[in-house]
Amino acid sequence: VMEWHMSKLAESANRLLQPKVKANFLCAIRVAFAAMLRISEFTVKGSLDPTRHALRSDVKFLPTKENPTHVQFTVKVSKTDQFRTTAVLSLYKATDPDRCPVRALQRLFAEDPQPASAPLFNFRHDQARQNPVSASFHGSNATRKMFADLCDTMFLYAGVKSMYLKPHSFRQGGATALLAAGAPEHIIKTMGRWRSDCWQTYAFTDPAIIATWATHINAQACVERDYDAHPPTRVADYSTTTVPC
Predict the structure, then answer these.
(1) Strands 59-62 and 70-75, how do they pair?
(2) Model confidence over 50-63: pLDDT tens digits?
(3) 73 and 55 in contact (C-beta within 8 Å)?
């Protein structure tokens, strides 16, 4: 999921969703993208477990809720955090208000106020919230299936083929956006909380970038070089080559 997909999701949500559901959905996709979240880190599967699942209390606006510069979001449990040491992620304001995760969270808290112990997101429409039978049937307010179904519906309305676009695609999109912006590898790994190089299987290189670099292949100067006197250094040799500090 890239920014173009995000804009299509927003266009569909503005036309189809009730105000509270729209605030929750648009905030969820923006936060999932910016924080490169796994689906389990912002939705619920099964019964709500306050020790594992994202709650309203896990979001802190800093320095103040009224005029924040950034937000701290606590991820209590994740795929690679088997010992539950938690992770505190920082999300900063974006220049474009429509792309800003901080403003999206502000709108969510203002338009759909919930107690601190409530799930961070509530994807149920107004009638389902007010109907105790429906509430009991649907279970948690922020189930993974609800979010996935909303994504499919919004993409379908926008005419976007979503066969390969899944909730986890927001994590892929965030990594790809950082790569396209020129972020160094250690920044991508740190922000995405990857301990290995598996992030490379998530991030995609834009064809336009490949085309730009491809033009450099045939643009090298034609210079005679004496490789017998000065052997070239392979990339693989850098790890064994002594370089002055």
Answers:
(1) antiparallel
(2) 999 999 999 999 99
(3) no
